[in-house]
Amino acid sequence: MKGRTSVQPGYYPGFSTLGQQANWDEATRATVLKRVARSLELHFFTPEEAPLIEAIFEHILPQIDRDEKYRIPIVPVVDERLHTNRLDGYRYENMPPDQEAYRLGMQAIEEIARGKDGRGFLELTPLEQDKLLRTLHDGKPEGAHHIWERMPVHRFWMLMVQDAAEAYYAHPYAWDEIGFGGPAYPRAYMRLERGEAEPWEVEEQRYEWEAPEDSVSDIYELISGHDLHQATPGQGGTH
Amino acid sequence: MNPLKKYLFNERNGNGHALGPIQEIDVPMRRFGEEEVDYVVIGVGSAGGVLLQRLARAGFRVLGLEAGPFWNTERDWVSDEAGSHNLYWEQLRITGGTHPLALGANNSGRGVGGGSVHWAAFTPRLHPSDFRIHSEDGVGIDWPMTYEELKPYYEQLELEMPVAGPAYYPWGDPHGYAYGPHPMGGAGDVLIQGCTKLGIGVSIGGPVAILSGSHGDRQHCIYRGFCIQACKVGAKASTLITHVPDALRSGAEIRDDSMVSRIHVNKENRVTGVSYFDVHGQEHFQRAKAVIVSGYAIETPRLLLNSACPGHENGLANSSDTVGRYLMAQAGNVVLGRFHDLVRIYKAPPAHALTEEFYETDSKRDFARGFAIQTVGPLPIAFAKQMMTAKGAWGWGLRRIMMDYNHWAAIALLGEILPWPENRVQLAEAKDRFGIPVAKVTFGLHDNDEKLIEFGKNKVIEVMGAAGAEEVVQETRFAHLVGAARMGTDPRTSVVDKYGRTHDVANLFVCDGSILPTQGSANPGLTIQALAARTGDYLIAQGESIFNTNHRDMMQPAIRRDLAPPGTYGRGVPRLANLTS
Ligand SMILES: Cc1cc2nc3c(=O)[nH]c(=O)nc-3n(C[C@H](O)[C@H](O)[C@H](O)COP(=O)(O)OP(=O)(O)OC[C@H]3O[C@@H](n4cnc5c(N)ncnc54)[C@H](O)[C@@H]3O)c2cc1C
Ligand code: SF4
Fold first, then answer.
1. Does ligand 2 lie within 6 Å of residue B324's CB atom?
2. Which segments within B16-67 are labelled E, that is strand?
3. What average pLDDT does range A186-204 have in this prediction?
């Protein structure tokens, strides 16, 4: 996929939720526009930490298929949450506070990388980086065990993935990518059944979507070491 | 700017509060200042909102202290997932045990309206069997009341919210709804198709506390699907819009951003008032003749435990050592199915169809009690999180599955988990910004619970498959909270009596989800509000004797339909003759 970037990946070409903003209420519009224009400054992660955490999130939620201008900020959103100490309302008894968890996790990832042949995480190839992170997903990290004793690896993994998902899928560019209609007050939705598009939504146009070859994240495997009866961090309610 | 000029009652910001696009309150709010009031209600949520309204309408001097804000719905609420986190109790709690519960957005609200602001508004009743599961199945505990005692309050609250649903609802105590059902969204269609294939009955279009037609100064549902992010439209019932306006008109005061830290008891073992912190962190003492705690299943026990004092060393009203114990959550596994055709699950309220076909104990199964199956409607962030557990998705895999978001439908289990003493709320070492120890929640499943979840989950998967899904995955989760200050007849094994009065202190009451001894497989909100209206009637019938005697009169009060918010009684289409009795 290298070199083939686009303004809007996904199966809904030309769909723009932002283009519908005149039909949103004022408070919602302000919230979403603020997100689009957000500052990219970091307050929690130090300038030394920033390249590492950015590299990690480029794998947790990769977007090299997006035009540079249409990438969705993730690290600044996580940074703000940690800086302002906005919690999800709870912490697992076997987890340190989120801020400490991130610092420990970064330390562990760097340690695992160096443990192999002395290269730091940033010096690994993209495929090597992906493979290293995959060992965390699999619950089988190859090193830094003194850190995983203080912090279960699957919990740290879920913390990162959920923070990434929360930043990415909150963004109108992501809504356009997945064909989500977005805010609908005061206008309403009127076509509720059979997946029909509203007059202003776009019909799906599928194509063969492929992940880049130098990655190992386009496979689905349950997170091991993760008891299936365990709730995830930041889980929202349903019914 | 919204062209409709709103009434002014909040001196603090002078902007007034919109409660939906056309609903307004036309009176200034009463201010008691430091004067002693009759009742302080701690927490203006599902139960607190109803209690405040009933007591104010009956002429009591009543003050609601609410930890969160008094919402201005036009200004504060958004049609946006990530922008709605402030609706939830986001402050620190510690969670643990063998099956640690997700807290925060998963089950706890904050602000006037409490959990009714962000609930999905499913409003099934409990079944008559729920009130005696120990007698019938030898599990859990019986309620100190029967279904028949609560039934008039179910009927009453169904009109006050009001609830839309089918004309005939076949499960539990069969009944009908006075307001017509809603149209289906994608999840409902899937539930109907799957259940129909398997010969399972389904209730469609309700029961949900969502307007299927305009009602007074509230508009009907516009099917925008953001119920869990609070309904800006005012179509979904919350006590903020159903009961709080009438409470204020009737002379109640609500102090928002007021976090109660301690309940005070004097040498005569009577409550004298409460301490609370205002938004600036300033501590105040409020005198009251009686206190009602309505802070829900974590904050209520936390407050009682933190109010330990001489004579109540283990926590206030905790001579039984049950404060904090028998906390329950329901099994809430979400089953997701991918369909060849598009679904677009984000439209319509998440709550719009369900089945209670598996609700009761079935001797052919190897566990007691049962479950319901209900529609859910995850928006993109919620769906992404479900996929990271259900499929282990991350990286490019997460991007890929999310591009298929519109092909997925979701339905969920709602299963009964039994009350266990070691599932509990305690005080942790960590403190909040006011210096109050935060809650530590411990939760685990027992054999019956695990078997029920396994069977129930597989049944939901079967329904999803029968509906034609090409791929079916599931995410384990828990929904709702109740218990942790349970009611009962025996003061040695329960915290409050059947009217919510603590066994230990005569002018201290608990009324919210925490008093439920068991939970059935019904979402708890309607039951919580029905219990609140009933406690309201009891307190009103008891009158001054609550304030000046320790006498415990257990006489059942007459239902006071005349104290309902005006305009809520006698509307709709009566479905059952006795609705108008
Ligand atoms: C996403 C989601 C969906 C749900 N869907 C449904 C559904 O479809 N149907 C259903 O029946 N139920 C549903 N529920 C559950 C329902 O919301 C709760 O069971 C119900 O609101 C609990 O009512 P309550 O009165 O006990 O407490 P709450 O409504 O939570 O009210 C408690 C209030 O007390 C305040 N408070 C707490 N401590 C203090 C203190 N120390 N000082 C001052 N104030 C305090 C809180 O801020 C809060 O406002 C859902 C919950 C969630 C999270
Ligand atoms: S779907 Fe209906 S009830 Fe739910 S938030 Fe939208 S308008 Fe309100």
1. no
2. 37-42, 62-65
3. 95
Instruction: Name the band, by pLDDT with cuts 50, 70 and 90, for residue B5.
Output: very low
Specify the 3-state DSSP secondary structure of B412: strand
Nearest CA to ligand 2 atom 4: B227
Q: H/E element holding A77?
A: helix A75-83
The reply to whether B574 falls in a domain is no
Q: What is the CATH number of the domain that holds B352?
A: 3.50.50.60
B156's tokens: 């009453």
Q: B324, B333 in Cβ contact below 8 A?
A: no
- Residue of A236, A91, A163, A159 lying closest to B105 (CA atoms): A236
B144 to B482, B488, B556: CA distances (angstroms):
16, 5, 12
B483 lines ligand 1 (CB under 6 A): no
d(CA B75, CA B362) in angstroms, rounded, equals: 49
Phi, psi (deg, nearest 5) at residue B289: -80, -25
User: Nearest 10 degrees: CA dihedral of B59, B60, B61, B62?
Assistant: -120
User: A116-131, pLDDT tens digit by residue?
Assistant: 999 999 999 999 999 9
Question: Considering the domain boundaries, does residue B575 fall inside one?
Answer: no
In the block, tokens 């961090």 appear at A233
If one counts every other C-beta atom within 10 angstroms of the C-beta of residue A84, the result is 10
Compute the nearest-CA separation of B343 from chain A (Å).
4
Q: Say what the alpha-carbon torsion angle B42, B45, B49, B55 is, to the nearest 10 degrees.
A: -30
Task: Give the angle subtended at the CA of B112 by the CAs of B516 and B488, to the nearest 5°.
Answer: 15
Chain B residues with beta carbon closer than 8 angstroms to that of A24: 79
Check residue A34 and report its DSSP letter: H
Query: Please, which pLDDT band fits residue B13 given cuts at 50, 70 and 90?
Result: very low
Q: What is the DSSP string of B183-243?
A: PP-HHHHHHHHHHHHHT---EES-SBSB-SS-BTTBPPP---S-GGG--TTS-B--HHHHT
Give the closest residue to B402 by CA, choosing from A166, A160, A124: A166
β-pair type (B328-331, B334-338):
unpaired
Q: What tokens does B364 get?
A: 């052919």
In a domain, B577, yes or no: no
Does the CA dihedral B280-B283-B284-B289 come out positive or negative? positive
Tally of CA atoms within 13 A in the half-sphere of A135 that contains its CB: 16
Please tell me the total count of domains within chain B: 1
Nearest residue in chain B measured CA to CA from A203? B342
Q: Between vectors from CA B109 to CA B105 and to CA B114, what angle results, nearest 5°? A: 155
Query: Which residue shows structure tokens 């389904």?
Result: B202
Please give the angle made by the CA atoms of B484, B486 and B490, to the nearest 5 degrees: 135
| Dist. CA B31–CA B256, nearest whole Å | 12
| B176 burial type by CB count under 10 A (0-12 exposed, 13-18 middle, 19+ buried) | middle
Query: Which chain B residues contact residue A90 at CB under 8 A?
Result: 92-95, 102-104, 441
Alpha carbon distance B548, B441 (integer Å): 36
Kindly determine whether residue B414 and residue A215, on different chains, have CB atoms separated by under 8 Å: no
- Contact, B28 vs B8, CB < 8 A? yes
Q: What pLDDT is attached to residue B579? A: 46
Angle subtended by helix axes A75-83 and A153-168, to nearest 10: 110
Tell me which residue range forms the domain holding B47: 17-568
Report the first-to-last Cα separation within chain A, whole angstroms.
40
pLDDT at A2: 46
Question: Residue B158 and residue B508: Cα distance in Å, rounded?
Answer: 28
- Give me the residues paired with residue B330 across strands: B479
Is residue B523 assigned to a domain? yes
